[in-house]
Amino acid sequence: MIQQPVAEKTEEKIINGTYRVLVSDAMSEEGLAPLLNNDNMECVQQNVNETSDLDQYDALLVRSGTTVTAELMDKMDHLKIIARAGVGVDNIDIDAATKRGIVVINAPDGNTISTAEHTFAMIISLARKVPQANASIKSGEWNRKAFQGTELRGKTLGIVGFGRIGSELAKRARGFDMTTVVFDPFLTKERAEKSGVRLAELDDLLSEADIITVHTPLTKDTKGLLGMENINKTKKGVFLINCARGGIIDEDALKHYLENGHVAGAALDVFEEEPAQNNELLNFNQVISTPHIAASTKEAQLNVAAQVSEEVLQFLNGLPALNSINLPAMSKEKFETLQPYYELSKKMGHILSQSMKGPVQDIDVHYSGEVTELETSVLTRSLIAGFLQSRIDAPVNDVNASLIAKERGITYGEKHQTNALGYSNLVQAAVKGEDRTFTIHGTYVKEYGPRIVRINDFNVDFYPTGHLIYIQHTDKPGVIGKMGQLLGKHQVNIATMQVGRKEEGGDAIMMLAVDKEANKEVLADLTSIEEIKLADKIEV
Predict the structure, then answer these.
(1) What is the pLDDT averaged over residues 252-270?
(2) Catalytic annotation on 245?
């Protein structure tokens, strides 16, 4: 069984008495109690810039105030684990840590309630104009007519992104007799019904909701999600809330719709550039804002400190880290044997996630041939992590992927079988949704690397990397020519092309490797060709 790296409990360590833990940023002593009260741990609270014996520490705990660079790690050559007391790890060089065999963990659950409560506080404050009324009365005014508010009862709350925080918001909305409508392309109807919310397409949510709050990760697909086009689809008088990531709501577009009165108000805890001291949105009286404090409560800070303290303690005592950000380490020999299949399975997960855009209920992975002699559970976790990474507003890795899948209502399993379809090794994965299944077969060829050899029932053979376009079409003369001409018009160069079909004139697929990412316009134009039923971009 391939394990994560764990701290070695050597005779020398026990004789010397302790592991040494450096806490570089201010943290709750109550939260640090698991480390402070353990006889085998020496916990020092001191900034790294003021610490002379950095090479003596086994663990480093930080918040956002300490930047953990490769240079700092070079000075801490005994360092085994870095713990971020919070969710974001932008201040830690993850690649550098991974190369040095240092595990990086965070506390993904510690601030869920605080963020949900802050978001709801922003909703209430916006609806009842609490900050504006407070400022007015403190300036000596008593202008009751100027601050007539809006009741939440009977209103529709639109939640974009239904992870942990979105789920907590829905609970609170029920207490205010609100209707909750949710857009999350990966949420199943069953889970939506259990949560007491109605699942909807984004356009339907935009047109129905009186209040819209966003809770998605900031990715290429979600950046500017509420921009000029989508905000125009909302109700006149809508309230917009962003306590997630700056940039999900396009600030220029928000400014435009505030100026013309379409958006009645906005509540912002995050901005595209922070600190937001010169942001023009702050000049609007109908905009309320806070300085990125949604997770800043005593309880949240206690929770995140306690969570990482417990995990550091367990890790140093030889147990695996459940919230590891980077990949688990392994012996050099096992890594060299497993690595090609590991790369293959991760790429297969990425392709499956982008090809199966809707909700997913089950992932089945089958192994046959030489690969069955390896520790395939590692490969299964790798595939699931690759599948979930673009779908989840939290770091996903091989260690926590199975737990996150379970939280999302996704079951998974693996089997070994004898039929490798003529290949020396074969990995087969099937992703099942509410109304369709998508399958992919991959193999590793020593001379050529990882290959995808089958998609659904179509035989193909391509290297899964870079910019890809997946096309489903009818096998008719001239289709490839039309496709090539259209891509040429868009200055999209085809590097390689694989075509698969079952029978002449029937259903067929194309997998194109292209030199640049296909945008929405390219994909829309492709599907305008009569014979093309579907065109999706895949980034691997």
Answers:
(1) 98
(2) yes
